[in-house]
Design a protein that fits this description.
DNA-binding, globular, Rossmann fold, Bact_response_regulator, Sig_transdc_resp-reg_receiver
Length: about 120
């Protein structure tokens, strides 16, 4: 079973995504802010991290920088989810080290297809 960390401070969206991903057979941990996300990442291994750009405590960009500077997480697949969808924000996210970017609002089915594609890349 593939394991995903979802770090999203918007409760309704987080609940929707957790329900959808669990229904598809994924094992999901959910973080409500950047600090909680880092705590999960220090004590668990994941196949993918879904990060909100704007979260309390640490932003998604700050989390990416921390993950990429640590040998144990430098190769972890990361997708940034953000309402900040201008090209400069997308570029900043990718330069920081995210593997993928998805602008909010997005179709849950589109997100699911992207996640499945990411997780099947290494098969």
């Amino acid at each position: 079973m593939k394991r995903i960390l979802l770090a999203e401070d918007e409760e309704v969206l987080r609940m929707l995504l957790v329900d959808m991903l669990e229904d598809e057979g994924f094992d999901i941990d959910e973080a409500t802010d950047g600090q909680e996300a880092l705590e999960f990442l220090q004590s668990n291994q994941y196949d993918l991290v879904l990060l909100d750009y704007m979260m309390p405590v640490y932003t998604g960009l700050e989390i990416i920088e921390k993950l990429r500077s640590d040998d144990s997480t430098k190769d972890l697949k990361i997708m940034m989810l953000s309402a900040k969808s201008q090209q400069k924000e997308q570029d900043a996210v990718l330069v920081a080290g995210a593997d993928y970017f998805m602008a909010k609002p997005f179709s849950p089915l589109e997100l699911l297809a992207k996640i499945e594609g990411i997780l099947n890349e290494n098969k």
